[in-house]
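Re: that backbone. Tokens:
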């Protein structure tokens, strides 16, 4: 399963690889420093959610999602591939990458995108598009995103379906990550030799990115579930109140050492 991105090339390949390594070191360090704030937010909203009426529809839906994942894996394996490639496709749109070909088969899939991503955003786009299927619960994000706009009588059923999508994404992702962790090349659906998204992005960086961004996205979704759209600001306040002082302390330490 692979997303192919067409981003304008810059300097020579060696220079681009070196810059990409530096970028990964920089972003990886920021994500590690942000983990304390991200974890604080998900714990705070997780506890609030657990003691709210939202708990039971989400839990019940998650159990159904687990069952659904097992059924689809045995009887409609192509759906998992479709969801994976669809996430690649949707993740690229905010960065100006428009999907023009989406191939879905039982044995794998392919998403091709074309566009012109600004040079400053290109490294962020490449990593987010490549790793989006492992961190972004596509259908859950859509349902949570529209939840504050829905009539109140709809909410228990919407929350149940949200739990189903969350359960499906969680259990399918836990299975996909080990499958795509190998660095060995394989043949894609067009017959071309290629490596997995994780292998191309880099295993160490992918590990940090998947953990940190998954927790960040799910914490933000919890905040929106509980507070509506104002939860976005509230989530950021919690994360930044823990992360910024830590970054400042690390910066002062680095100045003293250097």
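Recovered sequence:
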């Amino acid at each position: 399963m692979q997303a192919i991105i067409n981003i304008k090339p810059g300097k020579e390949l060696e220079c681009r690889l070196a810059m990409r390594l530096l970028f990964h070191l920089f972003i990886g360090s920021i994500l590690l420093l942000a983990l304390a704030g991200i974890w604080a937010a998900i714990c705070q909203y997780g506890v609030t959610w657990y003691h709210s009426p939202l708990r039971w529809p989400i839990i019940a839906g998650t159990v159904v999602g687990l069952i659904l994942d097992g059924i689809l894996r045995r009887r409609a394996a192509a759906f998992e591939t479709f969801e994976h490639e669809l996430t690649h496709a949707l993740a690229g749109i905010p960065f100006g990458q428009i999907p023009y070909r989406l191939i879905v088969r039982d044995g794998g899939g392919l998403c091709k995108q074309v566009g012109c991503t600004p040079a400053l955003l290109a490294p962020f786009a490449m990593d987010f598009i490549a790793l989006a299927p492992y961190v972004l619960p596509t259908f859950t994000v859509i349902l949570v995103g529209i939840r504050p706009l829905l009539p109140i009588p709809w909410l228990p059923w919407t929350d149940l379906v949200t739990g189903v999508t969350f359960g499906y994404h969680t259990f399918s992702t836990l299975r996909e990550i080990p499958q795509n962790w190998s660095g060995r090349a394989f043949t894609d659906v067009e017959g071309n030799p290629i490596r997995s998204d994780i292998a191309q992005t880099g295993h160490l960086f992918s590990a940090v990115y998947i953990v940190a961004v998954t927790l960040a996205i799910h914490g933000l979704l919890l905040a929106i579930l509980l507070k509506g759209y104002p939860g976005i600001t509230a989530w950021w306040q919690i994360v930044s109140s823990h992360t910024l002082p830590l970054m400042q302390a690390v910066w002062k330490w680095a100045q003293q050492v250097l």
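Residues 4-8 have pLDDT under 50 and may be disordered. The longest strand covers residues 97-105.
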